[in-house]
């Protein structure tokens, strides 16, 4: 599944089509200072922010939504049940929390 296919699936979905893996999602939402309602809103109404999709296993995808220049929302979802989306985990990736990695340039190898 590519980004365009997932956008179409999200645009066709309703609140009844999205399920959450409880109590895991509630704990992850508390850790990341977000709510299930915000996640539901992003999934249903902000599909344009979807930046990329990575297939982890068959019918299991890591999807990334761009929240700002430095922040992304990472969701792991599965589409095992036809027409239903199960949100497995939530993580907000924030670049300013991580140290900048400096690359070491090596001289030419001879």
Kindly describe this structure.
This protein has a single domain (3-95), classed as Nuclear Transport Factor 2, Chain: A, CATH 3.10.450. Helices cover 25% and strands 33% of the residues. With 110 residues, it is of the alpha+beta class. It has a 5-stranded mixed beta sheet. Strand 4 and strand 5 (85-94) form a beta hairpin.
What is the element layout, followed by pairings?
Blueprint: H1 3-12, E1 18-20, H2 24-31, H3 36-45, E2 50-57, E3 60-66, E4 71-78, E5 85-94
Parallel strand pairs: 1-5
Antiparallel strand pairs: 2-3, 3-4, 4-5
Largest sheet: 5 strands, mixed
The total count of helices amounts to 3
Mean pLDDT: 83
CATH-derived topology: Nuclear Transport Factor 2, Chain: A
CATH C-level label: Alpha Beta
Structural class: alpha+beta
Rg on CA atoms, Å: 17 Å
What's the arrangement of strands in the largest beta sheet? 1-5-4-3-2
Number of strands: 5
Number of domains: 1
Q: How large a portion of the residues is in β-strands, by DSSP E?
A: 25-35%
């Amino acid at each position: 599944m590519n980004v365009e296919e997932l956008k179409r699936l999200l645009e066709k979905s309703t609140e009844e089509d999205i399920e959450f893996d409880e109590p895991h999602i509630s704990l992850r939402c508390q850790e990341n200072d977000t709510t299930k309602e915000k996640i539901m809103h992003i999934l249903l109404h902000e599909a344009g922010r979807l930046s990329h999709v990575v297939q982890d296993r068959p019918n299991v995808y890591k999807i990334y939504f761009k929240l700002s220049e430095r922040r992304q929302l990472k969701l792991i979802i599965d589409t095992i049940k036809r027409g239903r989306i199960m949100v497995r985990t939530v993580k907000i990736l924030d670049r300013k929390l991580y140290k900048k990695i400096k690359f070491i340039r090596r001289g030419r190898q001879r």
